[in-house]
Amino acid sequence: MTTNEARPSFIRSILAIAAFVIIVLIGLWGAAQAFWLAPSVFSQITSLFSRTDDTISITLPSNIESGAPFDIRWEHKGDAGGQYAFSYRCREGFSFQMAKDNGTYSPIACETPTAVPSKEKQSLKLIPVSKIRFLDVPFVIAYFNPEGDIAAEGTNTATIINSSATSDTGTIGGAENGGTDTQPETPTQSAPPTKPDLTVRILETGIIDRATGAFIPKSQIFTSDIAAIRFEVKNAGGGVSGSWMFIANLPTNPPFEFTSKTQQSLGPQDRIEYTLRFDQPKSGGGVITIHVDPTNVVAEASENNNSIAHTIVVQ
Questions:
Q1: pTM of the prediction?
Q2: In this predicted structure, what is the pLDDT of residue 100?
Q3: Looking at per-residue confidence, does 212 or 50 come out higher?
Q4: Domains detected in the chain
Q5: For the chain, which end, N or C, has fewer CB atoms within 10 Å of the first or last residue's CB respectively?
Q6: Residue 98 and residue 86 in contact, taking contact as beta carbons nearer than 8 Å
């Protein structure tokens, strides 16, 4: 969820931590199942995020209904004879179907680069099929030049909504890997059916690989690393949250408090995952604290489960 790793100045470096992104862990070892891609491409797939600085600008609807067709569009000037490919991250209870030239749709495998039917059109019509009420699905559009090299790429995240689903039971953002939080979570109190209840949970800590932009889980971090923490915010109550925001205190040198932009409203049992990244972690480590709705804008069933703290070790 890709990022220039240059550090133009200390101030810009500190501000760069505001770029919390949903890390796109595209498992591309299944490339052998793709169609229309030349065999010479397969050996290049695993390093999708280490291409040139040439990027693909992607636009798509902000909220997409499960079962309804929608278009992904992008802007990129590719060489004649090249090929675009689409790949999306695997999510439990979710799949995409791709429109074919004859107007029908066919399922496409997750984490498998699949050729876009028309390379000149620079758009792709898909149907999402989700069993989950609210789901974020990261995806990649990659451009292969005529020589079979990945010459450009773009990433984005599709927010899929299944209005008829009664609960969110899917695995979001790799939380099945477990977190590294050593502190017990604050028990979620029972929420009245008409009130929201925002909760926060640490998933794991790690670093951002400078070459690939990928998140790597790690319990021990070095001062030269780009540190990162993955966490989840969930509306455990029975009402719609409305707009909200969060703050995060980070053990950088000097310490920094990150204030998020206004976040989208969460319905009952909706949840969303974030990856917050920051450079210049403080030697020796420190405590990361995350506080959801710090100004109490949301009238919640409980205000006692909006904060969490997590200690990281930095060498």
A1: 0.43
A2: 74
A3: 212
A4: 28-161 (2.60.40.2410), 174-314 (2.60.40.10)
A5: C
A6: yes
